[in-house]
User: Fold this.
Amino acid sequence: MLVLAATPIGNLGDASRRLIEVLASASVIAAEDTRVAQRLLAGLHVETRARLVTVNEHTEKARIAELLDAAREGEVVLVSDAGMPTVSDPGFAVVRAAVDAGVPVTAVPGASAVLTALALSGLPTDRFVFEGFPPRKPGERRRFLQTLAAEPRTTVLFESPNRTASLLAAMVEVFGPDRQVVVARELTKFYEEVVRGTVAEVAAWAEGGVRGEVVVVLAGVPPVAADSVDALAQVQALVAGGAKLKDATAEVATATGLSRKSLYDAALASR
Assistant:
């Protein structure tokens, strides 16, 4: 079996009993960094005879066959440096190969920087999207942010501390100064800090320098109540421009959130 094991994102006290048990019983521990894994084992006082192998962005694909063979014979535990493997961390290629090969895959749930920051943010949690790390280059980053300009869901991002200030400054340029954002740093650690405010306010805070592991949580765009009169006018304009009534009502309904049928009926009645 292949076991995806979530490890603490900071405080070792967050390690579950099951995590300790699977690490102790593993035949192979596949780690993003074996030195980090060894410190984790020592910190949790885990004694194991498991063979430690490195599975990172450079070695993952080359290790797949070896890990699948080991998982057929025993228990391979896959860990990243912190949090759940495969989430902006190595492991996806191994999991995909295991699924395709019929090797059982399970998970030991645990700490997640994504969910922890989302829960602490105070922003809506009923719908959210995780976008990982934004592009590093300014032009690519700006184009990436433009795709979030109309995103109604809360967005969770990872970012390097030395790029957090530039990311927030770019958000001010793309979104304007008033969109809500939260920066959560060093989650579960001694210097944990959660900074909330508008993108302009948080960008000003970040100019002083940001340290530690960073998660950025961006508020979605609030829904705008559609005016049925304006929506009908949009339908009529599209039809006047040559669009079929059915297509025009579908387009406007999608854009406004209004009922396609009510728009269609209203357009027919206005003729």
User: Anything to note?
Assistant: The first helix runs from residue 17 to 25. The CA atoms of residues 18 and 260 lie 51 Å apart. The chain is about 45% helix and 15% strand.
